[in-house]
Automatic annotation (TrEMBL):
The keyword Oxidoreductase does not apply. It comes from the Bacteria. It holds the Pfam family YceI. Residues 1-24 form the signal peptide. Keywords: Signal. InterPro entries: Lipid/polyisoprenoid-bd_YceI (IPR007372), TTHA0802/YceI-like_sf (IPR036761). Residues 48-207 form the Lipid/polyisoprenoid-binding YceI-like domain. This is Polyisoprenoid-binding protein. Transmembrane segments: none annotated.
Length: 210
């Protein structure tokens, strides 16, 4: 089958329109004052934002001795974003995860993971991240450098960050992001059982303080 130039251009435009429609889709019937997020940082006002623990997930993806990736979730997380809309590079982020909140679908394994053989949560109850620099790369992507502390050891880390959406919910400005990085377990003195890099995946919403 052959396409002439006019037909080909039409197909490209139709695909672009369908893609744009999918990205802009927003459910109908939302309660008054609730608006869908937009991939538009201009909708995010400057100010101090608190991480919403009900809309946040911290995931660790760990190699299961080369067969698959085991997925662990940390259920208790807090954080603060100081957002500078006029100069995003000047923004600041702090976050903390309660390591004892680790969850897994392997029966009774979470307690073992938080114990002395692995995360040593009694001695080191938190893993923390403090940003040192924001590097916007385009309108919806960037990198955030900082210091990650785990098991009492602090190492540099860089997260690749994607804006999921910004806007307002019940009058509160909100920013939602997806962020990933990987760490070398030996850098933090973790069990020699962990040989491959561990991927950290974070999905979170931040709400602006009143």
């Amino acid at each position: 089958m052959r396409f002439d130039l006019k037909t080909l251009c039409g197909l490209v435009l139709a695909f672009a329109a369908m893609t744009g429609a999918a990205q802009a889709a927003c459910p109908t019937g939302l309660p008054p004052g609730v608006f869908c997020g937009e991939k538009n940082l201009a909708a995010a006002a400057s100010g101090t934002y608190a991480l919403d623990p009900d809309h946040a997930a911290v995931i660790a993806r760990v190699s299961h001795i080369g067969y698959s990736m085991s997925v662990f979730r940390f259920d208790r997380v807090q954080g603060q974003l100081v957002w500078d809309a006029a100069n995003p590079a000047a923004s600041k982020l702090t976050a903390a995860v309660q390591t004892a909140s680790i969850a897994t679908n392997v029966k009774d394994f979470a307690k073992e993971l938080s114990g002395d053989a692995y995360l040593k949560s009694a001695a080191f109850p938190q893993a923390t991240f403090v940003s040192s620099a924001f590097h916007p790369t385009d309108a919806t992507h960037g990198k955030v450098d900082g210091l990650l502390t785990l098991l009492g050891k602090t190492r540099p880390a860089t997260f690749d960050v994607t804006l999921i959406g910004s806007g307002k919910v019940m009058g509160q400005a909100r920013i939602g992001v997806h962020a990933t990085t990987s760490i070398t377990p030996q850098d933090f003195g973790m069990s020699p059982f962990f040989l491959d890099p561990i991927e950290l995946v974070i999905d979170a919403e931040f709400g602006k303080a009143a």
